[in-house]
Amino acid sequence: MPPYQKESFVDIELFDYDPIIGRAPVRWPGGARVAFYVGLNIEHFSVDRPTLSWHEALGKLVPDVTSYGWRDYGPRVGIWRLIDILDRQGVRATAMLNSDAGERYPQIVEAGRKRDWAWLAHGRSTSIPQVGMSEDDERAYLTEVFDSIEKTTGQRPRGWLSPGLTETFNTPRLLAELGIDYLLDWANDDQPYRLKVPGLLSVPYTLELVDVQIFHMKSFTGADYLQMVKDAFDQLHEDSADSGRVMSLSLHPFIAGQPFRAKYVEKAIEYIVNHPGAWVTTSDEIAAHSRTRAYSDSL
């Protein structure tokens, strides 16, 4: 038998292990206990690239007509249903924008500008993952994305969410070089924390409540979703008796904007909006508040 040889693994260098117990208290404005934001995904999918499919059997078809039509329902119909819901509930969206979508869907951008959405960069296209990019290629890609979004929306984003949560080992550092304040990719905490890249924060992103996970991958119903959201918020509110927490709902218009789901999505948002312990805000404002002097000791 050959002698045991210890395998070599790459350790995460972006952050340290820091359990939520024992941290300095997090305080939100107005005495709120849970900071809550709605991430509205505004995305473009290419017709000639395999990506999120209606069914795995269709994933390799080019063109995948069924899946493209399903996804294209989002910018054509679903997003307008979600915009109405957010308007009724008085919620200002965190708009997670593909730069390709900003260039192709000017009516959506105009709707967001009228509502003063917080614009968060979400890559060029959800059909383009970042894994495997060289450092120079990724730097050029990120620069192009931010320049495009600034041109279409009139604002340069302060935050970032990678398409499909795909990064290279260089992504956080390159984002910081481009002046980005925070990213959502590392969904490993209920509080913001400082990454080991100067100037860069991680803001919580509630991965298990993303509608793609709940409805498409796990096939839960709208009623299931409503109960999950209520349960999650109630637990976070209980946890936050001594230190604030963050919760998000990430909505994809071609999924959450479907007619048979919309009423449950609205009831879920309404439950949180009407809760006295919620600070209904944007990811931009959470990041900005997390940099104030009163809060800096907890980072």
List keywords for this structure.
5-stranded parallel β-sheet, 299 residues, 11 helices, alpha/beta, TIM Barrel, 4-stranded mixed β-sheet
What fraction of residues sit in β-strands?
Answer: 5-15%
Radius of gyration: 19 Å
**What is the residue-mean pLDDT, rounded to a whole number?**
90
Q: What is the total tally of β strands?
A: 9
State the order of secondary-structure elements, H for helix, E for strand: EHEHHEHEHEEEHHEHHEHH
Low-confidence parts, pLDDT < 50 over ≥5 residues? Answer: none
Shape summary? globular
**Structural class computed from helices and strand pairing:** alpha/beta
Description of the structure:
This protein is of the alpha/beta class and 299 residues long. It has one domain: TIM Barrel. It is 40% helix and 12% strand. The chain contains eleven helices and nine strands. Helix 1 packs parallel to helix 9 and helix 7 runs parallel beside helix 9. The mean pLDDT is 90.
